[in-house]
Amino acid sequence: MEFVKCLGHPEEFYNLLRFRMGGRRNFITKMDQDSLSSSLKTCYKYLNQTSRSFAAVIQALDGEIRHAVCVFYLVLRALDTVEDDMSISVEKKIPMLRNFHTFLYEPEWRFTESTQKDRQVLEDFPTYCHYVAGLVGIGLSRLFSTSEFEDPLVGEDTECANSMGLFLQKTNIIRDYLEDQQEGRAFWPQEVWGRYVKKLEDFAKPENIDVAVQCLNELITNTLHHIPHVITYLSRLRNQSVFNFCAIPQVMAIATLAACYNNQQVFKGVVKIRKGQAVTLMMDATNMPAVKAIIHQYIEEIHHRIPSSDPSSSKTKEVISAIRTQSLPNCQLISRSHYSPIYLSFVMLLAALSWQYLSTLSQVTEDYVQTGEH
Question: What GO molecular function annotations does the UniProt record carry, in alphabetical order (predicted)?
């Protein structure tokens, strides 16, 4: 099915095929599980259960920093789960969060009183995103610097590190509007949506689709403000595995924002980038010129889709203009299309025929073996 979705995007088809046929090893290294202690094996088991996307990039980090980031991520996900659970009273939640570090040394500690069903109305969007994501960016940056994988400046510039986390968190919140509504959560900031509707769930009503999209565009415009800091942060990284770890989620986020911008589907279903698109981004985002090219591509996509009647249109254009002049000035943007459409079409046809041939050969061989066994 993923290959079918890529038929209109030859380069994605080619990269997805490369990825499936072993190319992933160049970007996601396979850990030697046998060399891990039992406690580390448990940590990575929980990591894979918690987040497939972050699990992959975390395990691709070099050396001991991989284990530190794994544990750091799991602890913060646990804290985030408690913080987001509105069924826990404030009187019980605050002491639990303050003392959470002590529970890490109690193997038998569990919390089983959650009855997550209450709706959260988010009133302080920037502060919330800072605590659940910005602090993650700051903490990771300090780990990278302390381990000497990166220069001290990476850990010292908390503003850029904070923006790295905020850009990802805001993107996820924007994209997940409908899913969060269906599960009784509300993360869109009331200070924004309150100017368009009386209740956040009203955006899912067909008669409100126009104002829903206007609110969506305003939130995306707000999120684009973080891109200059993201570019500055990534430009400072020197370790390849750290660069990949940081850059891949960021380019996925800008592609997701472009897919969501001015898109009614955000309020009707799921908006996701194609698997071939994600694989292509993962394979491309290994150096700064490529990352700048990717960012340029998607902010231009957004720019071309700005409706003249949108209340945020002038602000969106202003933000994009600032990104162009401040973060992408006179840079040599590499071409993201390495092969001509004709060549890629030929490769696609050859790959499809080869895939079918190998599948048929595998089936014939299996039938032959089964016949021989009888």
Answer: D-glucose transmembrane transporter activity; squalene synthase [NAD(P)H] activity
| Residue 257 C-alpha from the chain's centroid | 10
pLDDT per residue as tens digits for the range 293-325: 999 999 999 999 999 999 999 999 999 999 998
- The CATH code of the domain that includes 193 is 1.10.600.10
Dist CA 213 CA 211 (whole Å): 5
* Closest to 57 measured CA to CA, from 66, 49, 46: 66
Amino acid at 181: Q
Domain end among 106, 130, 160: 106
Element containing residue 297 per DSSP (H, E): helix 288-304
Q: Is 9 within the bounds of a domain?
A: no
Kindly state whether residue 166 falls inside one of the protein's structural domains: no
Give the pLDDT confidence score for residue 37 in this predicted structure: 87
Angle between helices 240-260 and 227-235 (to 10 degrees): 160
Task: Categorize the per-residue pLDDT at 160 as very low, low, confident or very high, splitting at 50, 70 and 90.
Answer: very high
Q: Is the pLDDT of residue 146 over 80?
A: yes
| Residue 34 domain-assigned (yes or no) | no
Q: State whether the Cα torsion 161-165-168-171 is positive or negative.
A: negative
Flag whether 310 is in a domain. Answer: yes
What is the residue range of 58's domain?
Answer: 39-106
Indicate if the pLDDT at residue 230 is higher than 50: yes
**Which residue numbers are catalytic?**
128, 175, 185, 245
| Number of domains the chain is built from | 2
Average of per-residue pLDDT across 44-49 = 86
Q: Which two tokens stand for residue 209?
A: 């689709």
Residue 365 pLDDT grade (very low, low, confident, very high; cuts 50, 70, 90): very low
User: Per the structure block, which two tokens stand in for 334?
Assistant: 């590499």
Structure tokens at 291: 């990352």
